[in-house]
Amino acid sequence: MLSRFGRGTGAAMEGIVDSTLLILLGLSGALFGWIVYSRFIASTVLKLDPDFLTPAHEIDDGVDFVPTNKYILWGHHFTSVAGAAPIVGPAIAVYWGWLPAVLWVIVGTVFFAGIHDMGAIWASSRHRGKSIGSLSEAVVGKRTRALLMIVVFLLLLMVNAVFGVVIARSLVNTPGAVFPAWSAIVVALIIGQLVHRKFNLALLSTIGVAALYVSIFVGSQMPIELPAAFGLSSQANWIIILFVYAAVASMLPVWVLLQPRDYINGLQLFVGLILLYGSVLIVMPDITAPAVNTRAGADIPSMLPLLFVTVACGAISGFHGIVSSGTSSKQLDKEPDARFVGYLGAIGEGALALITIIAVSGAALAATPELWHSMYEQFGSAGAAAFVDGGANLISAGWGLPVGVAQTLLATMVVLFAGTTMDTGVRLQRYIIQEWSEIYRIPPLKNSILATLIAVSSCLLLAFGAGGSSGNGGLVIWPLFGSTNQILAGLTLLVISVMLLKMKRPIVYTLVPMIFVMLMAFWAGAIKLLDFYEDGNYLLVGIDLIVLITSVLVMLEAGSKIIEFRSRAD
What percent of the chain has pLDDT over 70? Predict the structure, then answer.
């Protein structure tokens, strides 16, 4: 095992420095961001007010608006925004080398994602818990609201349709994850009832995490396979089951399932990160991937700008703004909790992205540089599977767990995070439809059941309408996710900037990240547009054009407001 990870050689010493250096860089960035930068933003820019009446208290309907302990809310927010993206994106981006991916994860987390997530929670809280699309009417104007909500709905459609495929594939490929994945729901339901009755949170947390890990061990020993039925494959049947579950879960009061499930999953990830980071410090694996990949093929996508849309979650992501303003803001107990929930949630994402980079760049996955290059022969050839394999080997070497158990643990982690994102995503789609009912005066759409059916039906229509009996339809428009997601992040920062300007507060800390993100995202979107056109994929050409044109119109509207406020100030 020691020779596998290269101890005792010159190469090993170089690898030891590299692997520990990545952890030191990430830890230093996270500490600076949390202790210094986030406190400055919270007190000087956003001016979070402990006496402000949050929507959770003002509305408190016991279903969507519920004042929530900040630790539980952090668990919901973190696991909802995490999903599989902070694993898949960095695992793919390492193709360009570990150095660009690490730098973007650290800088993106500290200066981009933290203020984006915290700012979106704050902005929504100041507008009675409205989504970032809906609240843009009060900040910018009606046309902005209509345009921005189109982008939000398209992004949610992409995320939900694709995550259904991701989870289904994981359950098919790793049947050992089936039992713990569904056991987590039972555990969460029990925890939710006990927390609601004011049982001791620390004790419940310990019992919940222990039960989850027992189920992971049982699952590794008792794999469950869903047979093909009704003329559909096992994967297609899982997709249908998952959306039926998501529909029911999205209509339950948040304290029944959403909060406790996300909280326990958040604790599980925390334990998983300790296992992974601890393994790096114990084993000190070589970093066999190059800092910058000089052997990349001439026909691969350009690192600039595509790095910044490939690594989205784990740096900055527009989907985070939807969750922040969609569910997290409705559960905010006190306004200063936005810093803990939003900024610390972003740091958690960055920590997951960083350990993913280490797992897929080191000897735990590929013992030599040549083997690493063979595994990363093509762009996109490695993803979540590389993280599961590399991470499992790392945990096995560091803590002595059997590789099979470690693989089940990490596969379950991926499934559970993707599942919580899907749960939240369907609920957010329902919110958007219900907001449309108020905006356009269509009373039937206000009904939670009808709005949820429309949300789930749109996802299933995409899954099976564009993908046939396999249910892979979400993958058809998934190539648009990267640029669309980052464009939405830029638009969210733009709305926050206009709001700050109206309140006569500094906007440089949101405007500079917005400009950078929008430049990279539009550049990537334009590249994709040409690729889609050359491939004759006119569906994606049309959707890409809708997103780009809509975003330009939103920026023009917001720009005119900024000029107007500036002229008034002068």
Answer: 95
